[in-house]
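Sample A.
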Amino acid sequence: MSNHTSETPSKSAREPLAPAGRGKRPAAKRRHLAAVALTMATALTAAACGSSGGSTDATKGPVTLTFWVKSPFPDSKVLLDLWNKQHPDIHIKLDVVSASGNTIPQAKLLLDVKAGREPDVATFDTEYLPQFVTTGSVLNLNTVSGGNASSLGSNFESWAWSTVHVGDGLYGLPIDAGPLNLYYRKDIFAKYHLKVPTTMAEYVQVAETLHKKDPSVYLADFPTNDASVFTAMSWANGAKPFQVKGNSWVVDIAGKESLTVANTMQKLLDDKAVLTLPHFSSEWSQDYNTGKIASWMSAAWAPGPLKSFAPKTAGKWAVAPMPQWTPGVASSGSWGGSSAVVFKKTKYPKQALEFAKFLTTNQQAWSDYWIPKITIYPTNIKAQKSAALSKPDSFFGGQKIYDTISASNHTVAHDFNYGPVANEWFTTEQNYLSQAVNGKMTLAEALQQTQKSVVAYMRKQGLSVEAP
């Protein structure tokens, strides 16, 4: 359940969406946001993260929890039947929200929160978690009496566990991870005598060499509709776009590490050595299916979609680690990944936390549903050892691809922060990157413009911001 539809991706281009709540806010709201910013920079107080409206969880008979999830969510009966067998007195009302694009589902949920329509439990993209915390609507799981949520940390990949914390508060349980890898066409590499790149410098050389040898083939696509893969590449290079300093957010979207990524990709754009098609568009999918694009720098969830939109290429693929920015230093970033979150408004915080635990740690849920139905890579350490992840994959010529994916997962940096306005950040950067691809500015200038816009937006929301 990745950020970018690890299940069956939308075939349409992803449209930008202005974030919920944009515009001038009342002074009281601005003061609230400033207060929340302080709690995110320090240990969160009980007032800021108290449990769900004083509910005692004293219940008689069955209870019902609303479970919000973005589409597609295929064969959900498999998952819910397993839950129902184990918890017959806790019914789940499934709310599958149909929305394409990266920011749109989360924006819809933000609107639901603003209107007081939030569910009991939701799974959404982890990068938006701090933004939901700023609304004051997300339950600190550490405050659920008897839930022992903080003791669950040893169940998860350590870097993923860090992403569900804001300050000292635990605001979700991580589900899947999206470490970057290089999925590439073995046959095309062999035909043109190309070496699989191990560094980004080699990646650029391979892209230029391939397109020079055959102008009808490209190593990669630089998407015009998605800033997230660029962000993950920057993460792998050590970028820190958001950090907490005292009571403020330090925003450095155009830091030197991110600019290195921008300048590297700019060279490929200037040399016309990559395509610039929207991710998951029909033309983009067709170009993979016909061999016009020879690789995909993508996340752990990519094998599922790749098999769906490029079935004619079965058996011709392989997966390698993401080429490194610093030779000899293994480092990856994560594209996507989701978390299970409980909202304060729930009347049943204990039961909601129990469902969140089930979604993230139940091994049968992983082996019967998440891995085979949604094709995602778990943050849960036991699930990473599932037999379903150790089988040779015929689409990849019999390679045990999760050996490589697992190794990449262990190299994801621990100190990356998405900040409190991910919806605004991704939408803004996406728009500027699109302008850069169309020749209206450079990628470096796109990052600098994004920095200015996001800092201004945050200050308008009453958040304390420092910028380099």
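Sample B.
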Amino acid sequence: MQRTIKSFSIKNVQQFKEHSLLWAQQFETAIWLDSNNYKQQYGSFDAALAVEEFTAIKTDFTNAFDKLKEYQSITKDYIFGYISYDVKNDVEHLTSNNFDGLDFADLYFFQPQKLFFIKGNTVEFQYLQMVDDEMDSDFDDISKMSFRAQSRNLKSENDIKIKLRIHKEEYHKKINTLLNHIQKGDIYEANFCQEFYAENATINPIEVYHHLNKISQPPFATFLKVEHQYLLSASPERYIRKEGTKIISQPIKGTAKRLVSLIDDAKIASDLFRDVKERAENVMIVDLVRNDLSKSAQKGSVKVEELCKVYSFKQVHQMISTVVAEIEPKTHSIDVLKNTFPMGSMTGAPKVSAMKIIENLEETKRGLYSGAVGYFSPDNNFDFNVVIRSILYNEEKKYISYSVGSAITAKSIAEKEYEECLLKAKAMKYVLLHSE
């Protein structure tokens, strides 16, 4: 699919980014990806915006990867979208029977009519030829904000009542059940998640996203709008990236809070790096990711580039490992995804056993949470995040949801795991209850 490409210089990058996202709200479909200028080894742009379907695929989990492979192979263009956690049921003989208050489709991708890539002080417009006569006027509209901005829901309601799907006492019981499974040898690690939610609640998605992103500034921030459904994500985690024949996966396991004092903050980061339990969690998932990548990789090419390196974000310190592999040029991109999905950091090990056990213990269908959002390029490269630290919103149902989880191992203490969940939930709760 031929695209017309044109570059423009930007005087005020941050303002242009904010204006672009506001401009995008006129469309039924929009995806915004923002690295927040986070310095990382692997990346293609500072930010990207894709709007307005030309073609699209929306499906449940049944044969989802085969359908995506056909769509991506035929389209041969940029496609943006998501794979929900429940597409696990297409990979293995699994089910998802828990409550779902959000109703996102299991898998959705679209070919955008209009596409922007921001790199430094330049924005590159890539438009389908059918709309390329709108490039200059769109750039002017965004730069000058001369279009009529949406004015509805200028403020989020502050009377949102956040409820717990699993109360503390019940959470402790479920952790003990998981520990029994670990002691019996059924699993040796599981990522157990819980939902916080609000009913009959209305928010302004743009406002909430901006606030969440401002206090977190993660490298894989995402704003997704598909008609009346929204994802507002401050994800710090990459699921998987393909650059030519190189595959990169960067699982996160290990979390510590940021402290005001520079000395104390440096000490808690150092303590995280040395923490035996946190390192064990990370290493277990690295082994799982290595195994997943080996299903597609050339023999002997799977390597750990970084093991248990501590990275610092505005809210938390995170322990991240980087696992890479080489694939044959003929290996299909979708097969790499299918062989590694869902991300090991969000499941546990052994992977299938862990997914079965957590499905029985969790109270909510994960849906888009702990799935992945990203894109494919025309040359068959891709990049996907892990949907964590995120708010999901169904505007039609007035249902707001955010979920958090932690890795349960033999050394886990229920109370500490609960505290870790509350730490991870802190930013989402704050922005919902304190509109700017």
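B remarks: The two ends are 42 Å apart (CA to CA). The mean pLDDT is 94.
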